Amino acid sequence: MQTTYKVNQVTLLEEKSENTLKVLKQDGRTQAFNLNKILKIYVESARLNNIQLTEDELRKIRNKIEEHIITKASPCIETCEIEHILKKVMNESGNPELVSTYEEEKNNKLNERKNRRDVNKMIQSLLTKDKSIVNENANKDSNVFNTQRDLTAGIVGKAVGLKLLPEHVANAHEKGDIHYHDLDYTPYSPMSNCCLIDFKEMFEKGFQIGNAEVESPQSIQTAAAQTAQIIANVASSQYGGCSFDRIDEVLAPYAKLNYKKHQETAGKWIEDKVKRQEYAIEKTKKDIYDAMQSLEYEINTLYTSQGQTPFTSVGFGLGTNWLEKEIQKSILEVRLKGLGKEKRTAIFPKLIFTLKRGINLNPEDPNYEIKELALACSAKRMYPDILSYDKIVELTGSFKAPMGCRSFLQGWKDEQGQEINSGRMNLGVVTLNLPRIALEADGNQEKLWELLEERLDTLHDALIFKAERVMDATPENAPILYMHGAFGKRLTKEQKVSELFLDRRATASLGYIGLYEVATVFYGGNWEENKEAKALTLDIIRKLKKTADSWSAETNLHVSVYSTPSESLTDRFCKLDKEKFGSIKDITDKGYYTNSFHYDVRKNPTPFEKIEFEKAYAPYTSGGFIHYCEYPKLQTNLKALEAVWDFAYDKVGYLGTNTPIDHCYKCGFEGDFKPTEHGFKCPECGNTDPETCDVVKRTCGYLGNPQKRPMVDGRHKEISSRLKHMKGSDLNGN
């Protein structure tokens, strides 16, 4: 049997043998021997010396390597011995200069690794404003002092963290086989990731922040103020996003306290019962609006200890009494109005509106008018995103908003059989570079599965290490989380934090990126209608799900498959793979990888095509997912947006709206700013001044202002590409 593979565009025929030779790595692990890896090192050394190798020459080199290695009697060979054989073959082949080139490249990589783990070197990179450091997070303004302090701490955390990680995990992260997320915080500190804060428990029982013991709020204004304080403290005690699920239902009892007070006041001064009722209702409505407006401003003016606005999401839409409905309306009306005198689009909190048949989905439903308001808000401000109630229950086992961006908890009940969502959390994410596996497989699907299994072994060690590190924390490390109710159950100082994680109460996430590029390796860049290609991508996701389920049984955590939010990772993995494999059409030549299971944005699919294509993936990635649709300006055609929402309801659980909402305060233009190499500019007057233009783009799940917060190169390119093709997605008439 013969199989074809390519080495730097030279095609060879390799006789496939039943070789069981193993390689003993320096970190003690064993891997299956791969002749291609050695041959490609030889070819790369030749390329750097401007030596062109013919196919016949490559055959001879391969045969010499095989002669030295494959015929070994021992079932295992050490990497140092492989290196010795490679140098010997370089000399025997008449190219001794390749040895020094190989040694130089090897030393360069070792020095790069050493520098990444050298605190002083990394701080120097920060001082010289290395873009990969200062622009890594679009929610962090690297110009302000407290962010600079956090970035400095992050540099130290990364350098120390790489040394704390198991060596093979650190190596895999640095090479780009996997990505150990949030290395600036963990494993240096035993912090957890994102969560659903248990606001209801904290409001009802009170809590403590610093030296202040906070009692249960007696008005919606106080509840809103406490909400902001809780968010700030939770965000400073973890590194991921935090969500307030069912905010309308949780805050309604405190709005009712306002209503009762206004009734009492009206009873003293107004004789007419009807007018007393009207007075109390109107005053309560005003209180609710003011409280929601205050919360919006407080969140957007907060800075956490990480030097950023807390990444906050609020879920709402299911409440049906008049107070709950008024809270929903106020949230949307406040967002529609905008921030400040220029009415800018608020970046946080991320609004997530729930659609449910019988409540607000259809015109005959009692809350349909709020859906109409949500449509108007989404068209003008890009939020809210929407959740489809029935589909979320089907996919995750219960209904809840995501934690932060897109991380979903799975259905879980306590010992009393009560369903619990709020007060639960995620312990971290490690993401797999799927395109690299496909590229290394070199057209051989059997090899793809072998490499996937191998990389999953490494990812397993990384993820379990990450989760176990969080369990090293003590309740005193983060009192707001463990002792004062944010994580639900309140622990004493002596209890172990693992009590809140085990029995699958917490999740740990197996992330992935680049399914589009994987299929492109095997079937070309236009594979979306190819059933065989799509079947391959689904088989990969099923494999990840099966693996995650087995890890769940092993660890007593809920290991979930997570469609990674890859703000910097879209760029990082692609950049590393371009260095390794060169520029490959529709894969590394774009400058970014396509996130998770998303349809290639360059093909400009309609929202209906995109939803129909992507719906098959979420059932296997229920630990984290979101679907986006691209639209033209929609403010005058809300029925078009509603058509997509309704179409999506029984197909996908979580849907985001991407539409041009940029605004120029010099000329008044509203719409789509033009992406350039240096940022975005108004197409009418050429304005690029961040102070007089409001540029809002979605950056992997949440909104950002790339004019004020420069994004990493790959993410900027992806947005630019998306905007370039978005204009054709005209829904008028659909």
TrEMBL record:
Single GO BP term: DNA replication
Record-level Gene Ontology MF annotations: ATP binding; ribonucleoside-diphosphate reductase activity, thioredoxin disulfide as acceptor; ribonucleoside-triphosphate reductase (thioredoxin) activity
Pfam family, one: NRDD
Every Glycine radical domain range: 603-728
Keywords: ATP-binding, Nucleotide-binding, Organic radical, Oxidoreductase
SUPFAM superfamilies from the UniProt entry: PFL-like glycyl radical enzymes
GO cellular component entries: anaerobic ribonucleoside-triphosphate reductase complex
InterPro entries per record: ATP-cone_dom, Form_AcTrfase_GR_CS, Gly_radical, NrdD
Keyword Oxidoreductase: yes
Modified residues (Glycine radical): 701
E.C. numbers: 1.17.4.2
Protein name in UniProt: Anaerobic ribonucleoside-triphosphate reductase
Gene it is expressed from: nrdD
